Amino acid sequence: MEILIISIIKSLALIVILLTGFAYLTYYERKLLARFHVRLGPNRAGPRGLLQPIADAVKAIFKEEIVPDHVDKPVYLLAPALALIPALVAFAVIPVAPAMTLFGRTIDFAVADINVALLYVVAITSVGTYGVILGGWSSNNNYSLLGALRTASQMISYELPLGILLAAIVLSTNIGREMGTLSLHEIVLQDRPWWLWLWLWLAFPVFFIGVLAESNRSPFDLPETENELIAGFQIEYGGIKFALFFMAEYIHMITGSALMATLFFGGWRGPFVVPGTWHGALIGFGWLFIKILALLFLFIWVRASVPRVRYDQLLHFCWKFLTPLSIAYLVITAVIVVFAG
Amino acid sequence: MTDDITTMEAPALPYADAVPGAVVGADEFGIIVNRDKLVEFALYLRNNEGFDYLSSLTAVDYLGFEGRTAEDRFEVVYHLFDTKKGGDGVVLKVRLPEDDPQLPSLIMVYPGADLQEREVYDFYGIRFNGHPRLRRIFLWEGFDGHPMRKDWKEAYYEAEHKPFKSRWPNGHYHWAEDRVPWGDNVKYPQGWDPNAFEPAPPPLPTIHDIPGEEIKTDRVIVNMGPQHPSTHGVFRMIVALDGETVVGLEPECGYLHRNHEKIGERNTWLGNIPFTDRLDYLSSMSNNFGYVLAVEQLMGEKGKPPERAEYLRVIMAELTRIANHMWSIGFLLNDLGAFFTPALYTIQEREMILDLFEEASGSRMMCNYMRFGGVRRDVDEDWLNRCRDLVHNRIPAKIDELDEYLTNNEILLARTKGVGYLSAEDAIALSVCGPMLRASGVPYDLRRSRPYSIYDRFEFDVVTDDGCDVYARYRVRMEEMRQSVRILKQALDDIPEGPVFKGKPGYVTRVAKGEAYGAVEGPKGELGFYVVSDGTDNPWRYHIRAPSYINLNALAPMCIGYKVADSVVILGAIDIVLGETDR
């Protein structure tokens, strides 16, 4: 019973934090894009435009709910939720701060510290694809159909290099331990030798590209390509339903950044973090926050800088370049583990 | 005596022996051709005389014109040019009777006649026999009559010409709408029921049917536009897709149509100058330039501008070209999916140029700067110095910066190289003009081949590129900006002191009876104005050869076989502005 209550409290807190994070991520992105564009960005609502996300949320919620006649209604209404929920749920396994002791009870800052966390993340994020595909399909619109088809092939393609790289990372957890682990908590706690850090960082660019593609971010935003498919799979969605898709994309970004921070940059670890204390938890959370912000900056930087590749070039890039590269990485990692582990 | 005249007149008819019976006469502006021999004669001109480029095709309605009867009421006018030798072209005229306005289509000789013949059919009801898609293009099927005919009156018709005295009958204005009995301006043809109207399906293949294969698959017809972020306005492309590959494309325009040419006939000569600003609203100075050149030809010596005005015109036109190419490159990158960053960087430079325009003319975009016989206002030394600073320092640096960031960008190369291939022969045949034509390797630039104003004094290169693809178009635009900077530097060094306007300003311009075709190399291509005057205060005919409209001829041939994402980029590389396309 007690564990249930704690889990509910943790989940609620996580959802609140993620949704606020999403709202302010849009602000962060708009401000940053404006800087890249030599503009000012939002600056009307509140001081420095800080209330802009709230204004946007209010607008989205109070918009008229329109369900077009030609859509497949149940699926059409289900799709935004299907896209959003996996994005939220995937965050559950990420340790956001070191465990601390409060009132004689140890609290670890992950909703669920399960031992197959990485597997769980891969599985859950794949489910999110369904929301996009079903949304595009049920809209009964040529543009959204094309967008949905693109999503399907893009997601399937890019999960491959991502999965292979994750396997390599899991393999590398064997080094210096008796057994490898799939738990993110233990991956954060693991002490890696310096050369292993370097070797992991080599994989980071490829992993980052994969995450870009997984979260439909520019230059891989082929499912929604404003310039040709207008908004792709979400073209028939408006108001809060559109906002849900929007949220899903941004929370994917946050989750992706948190995952990358955890795998490649040590998660909450950093100077001044004393595990087990309340201030250690706070500072640890701060470190993770800064790492996530830096990674999100990368997402936005890329969006402001590069044109979009074409659909067929995207798949070529994945199958002919990223996948062989990640397989090679996996093989070399295995060799390293055999000799060093 | 009669024999004498015939023997004297016979050699005056050009190309009289080429095709027997084709040339039936000539006036001082062109050759009058028998419509039955038109195709043969055009073939002869194309194959033997080198006139390979059909620049402008239009018609004039001479109902009630002095010296004309019902027998020769309509006149279809062709302007042909030689892209290799340059120089003045040849003007063909076909006169058509009122009761039988039809003639053979030239689409087999000059495929570029396609859209222009449809336009003439739409406006005049002249039939081009043999044209495969002779449908209305700007107006819809429920439109009553052919609006450019002189006997067609609009619903709120007030008077033939401006200024409309009816607007102030007793010293007070009143609404023209109140005087129309049916209360609105909609007129349908006889027996037309708007509720029963079903638009014809697009003439595109819908079933993928490969001979010999069992399985037939559906094609997806995607309707891109008129509300679409990448059509640069209200343009519509109906695209047939096989998977992601374009297998058919039908351009649809006319959503911004306001019959500019008819309004131009109602206006006074002077009143059309601000009106030309609204054609290609990104390069209003060039539009002014083309129009005043055409009318100044009719005015003769009186219309020749002073030296300083000529220099100012060239400076303005070249600044316009830079501003336009900046815009076009920025938005090409936007079409490629770069999220506005390149566009905003290029727009910054355009803003600097617009600041100069604002100071010189009083307006940033709708400049209304040029006049017959000069320009409206002089610029001071401070303006010239700021312009020099821009031309010598800021713009060249910015062009280099863009070049560095964009030209070798991997994604840009991957997206544009080999996309939208248009060979030189096709480009000429399809009457493609401007940077599009030069990117196919044809060194045809009006500033060089038919120098107007004072362009013969400047040193510059005609930029060409043999790539024939979108990347080549991008490169040509980039390089043309550098050439414009070169011209600007020379013009700003040489600009003399003196008056900028000849004669005294007035609202009424008297031009001689006659006709003229004035064309400038606008940023988008050959911008031609064909004007006919009957000697009054208003043009009898005011036709615009709109470069981005005629470049659309090449859209479908360029897109077919490429991916749907490419079609957007190809359209972006044409650089269309709908204000000009739809007129």
**H/E element order of chain A:** HHHEEHHHHHHHH
User: Which percent bin holds the helix content of chain B?
Assistant: 25-40%
Strand order of the largest sheet of chain A: 1-2
Secondary structural class of chain A: mainly alpha
**Low-confidence parts of chain A:** none
The CATH homologous superfamily of the largest domain in chain B is called Cytochrome-c3 Hydrogenase, chain B
Distance between the termini of chain A: 42 Å
What is the overall number of helices of chain B?
A: 18
Largest interface: A-B, 28 and 33 residues
Which CATH class of the largest domain in chain B applies here? Mainly Alpha
Distance between the termini of chain B: 51 Å
What percentage of the residues of chain A does DSSP assign to strands (E)?
Answer: under 5%
Mean pLDDT across every amino acid position of chain B: 84
The assembly state of the depicted protein chains is heterodimer
Using the 3D structure, state the CATH architecture of the largest domain in chain B. Orthogonal Bundle
What is the domain tally of chain A?
1
Question: Which shape of chain A, going by the Cα principal axes?
Answer: globular
Instruction: Report the sheet-strand fraction of chain B.
Output: 15-25%
* CATH topology-level name of the largest domain in chain B: Cytochrome-c3 Hydrogenase, chain B
Descriptive tags:
heterodimer, A: 341 residues, two-stranded antiparallel sheet, 11 helices, 2 strands, B: 583 residues, alpha+beta, Beta Polymerase, domain 2, Cytochrome-c3 Hydrogenase, chain B
